[in-house]
Amino acid sequence: MHHSDPHIAASGPTLAYVEFYVRDAAATAAEFRHKYGFEICATAGAAHSGGDRCSLALRQGNITLVVTQGEAANAYVERHGDGVADIALHVDDVPSAFAAAVGAGARAVREPGSSDGGGAVIAAFGDITHTLVDRRTPLPPEFSGRSVDSTAGTTARTGGFEELDHFAVCVAAGELGGLVEFWQRAFGFRSVFQEHISVGSQAMNSEVVQNAEGDITFTIIEPDPTAAPGQINEFLGAHGGPGIQHLALSTRNIVEALDRLSTQGVETLNVPDIYYDALPERVAVTEYSIDSLRKSRILVDEDHNGRLFQVFTRSVHPRRTFFFEVLERCGAETFGSNNIHALYTAVESERLARAPEAPEVSGAVPAADPLVCLDDLARPAAARLPADVWDFIAGGSGRETTLAHNRAALDSVRLVPRVLADVSRPRTATRLLGVEADMPVAVAPMAYHALVHPEGEIATARAAAAAGVPLVAAMLSSRPLEQVARAGRPPLLQLYWLRDRAQLLRLVRRAEEIGCPGLMVTVDVPRMARRLRDLRRRFVLPSHVRPVELDGTPRPGAGRAPTVAEHTDAVFDASLSWPDLEWLREQTALPLILKGVLDPADAARAASAGIDAVVVSNHGGRQLDGAVAAVSALPAVRAAVGDACDVLLDSGIRSGTDVLRALALGATGVLLGRPVLWGLAVGGERGLADVFSLLKQEIEDALVLAGCPGPEAARGLTAVLDGSVMNEVERV
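Now predict its structure.
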């Protein structure tokens, strides 16, 4: 990916050439030449000599490829099909490098100075080898003394390729770590990136290793044995074992390169239009227009250094085991793994969008189970998301006792329905958090919606606005506040208390400028709790997800994004106290809501301090493990504040009946958390619209069956909580 100055003496191995074993060297060379713009610079052996060895060397830019046929090649092709068989390395001293590699555990295939003159070779993995070549030797030994066109490297204009960016290596489950260690021990490579990738029910692990000079990069991928078989398993089966799946060729202008390749007969993988519809909200593209990217079906990825543009060619090999990637780096160091999830989501969204019009075909795959309750979304969401992302969303702190108790406590609330109440015209609408709402529900502030869908908070805002549901935008949002407001309607803004008070005040002013109806200050995170699932997964944010409102956040290390816990340590202020809230009250006229209140004494003090609402919440079981269930604390909090401020319930809401329970115990409304992300993961904006539609219907059903014409009537219901009768809890 990065290339050293050729005039500087190298200290480690660098890339010499890549050798393909093929059935027909002349035909393969002609394809590389006419389709991809490589030029033949040397030949060795007769091009039509049957079983005899024949090799042709091709160059473009700094890339040298060698295609070879013959007895050894035939045996390789019989096992694997045409493909990469050798990655040759330039070294300062072949015998010394060979001895060092073998001493580090590499298996010798051919020693230096062998009688056949083929040079030193060691085994890498599977049937892939490394030939060790003196830096003064540009091509394999069989080309020695033959004519080499030294100007062939200037013909890069014909294909537009300059560098070989990386090799994509597929290995069987459990082999990744050993291969990484091999390259580290034998040649001093370094690991630069690790990631767990999930696409639907499929999952894989990847690690990127690179030589010191940066011109040899291996992206190694293994299937996750706990997930469903996927594309890596398919490659391993078709290839007959581990191998090089593709080479990534780098260009300076991918749009021009693809225009040229298209006229030369190169086909690329298709990308659905919906991918490009969502692209502007996922990546800030400045280099090319969306239309030009759509036309060439170019994928776009992004990290904190810039953007990556990439396409994959269609494999013309009978076994579909080899293809090329074409890419352009505009500062980005990512390898495009985030595109896998974005592309998969786009393909699935397009399938869902077409599904209602699709004709019924005998023997067709059955449709997905109908959505009859919000819990139905949990399993498909888990299947679509990377395992570490799912655990980040679904998990709690510690042993997750509070997480479990939230649900158990809600289920323990018993209601006494009223009768003869005329519920012929039920109504779910109410006023919540200072705005009109079509039901007593608001979207809870949750970090990084882009973890589950490329559009992130933009899709959430659109769905919430269409459903008439207030949205609380998280400070740790993956989309800017102004974009979220434009997509739907001005959200409330959630705040954590920052060490940098000036930055906090700038966020408040932005909220005022776009018409946010209130500020929700989360007060139960003086520090991040130990979330064991995240610790076990070593969860970090993928490169395309970042806290856009906190661009000044210190990064913990090059090549990876910070964890949420690292944000907490770096920017949140654990000294937050009541005088700080008084200061904030003096700075803005916006309504203030405190989220994370469980003790009635804290609630009473908030009400007396002029706080407009409190949210009874234990952070969804993600902070103090062992804290009381939120619904258990609700009645005492309502009694403590009386009519002085509104009270909302957060943590564990999963149904319309849960909303009714909260209303009966004194809440003005509820915040809905994890089911929002489930719907977003499964179907984007449409999936979230289904969540709101179902929940509204459930709330109406619950109100009618309880004898309540509207939400305010539910405050008169008798509820039994933990064996105690709560009769006609304080009414607003």
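The CA atoms of residues 479 and 498 lie 19 Å apart.
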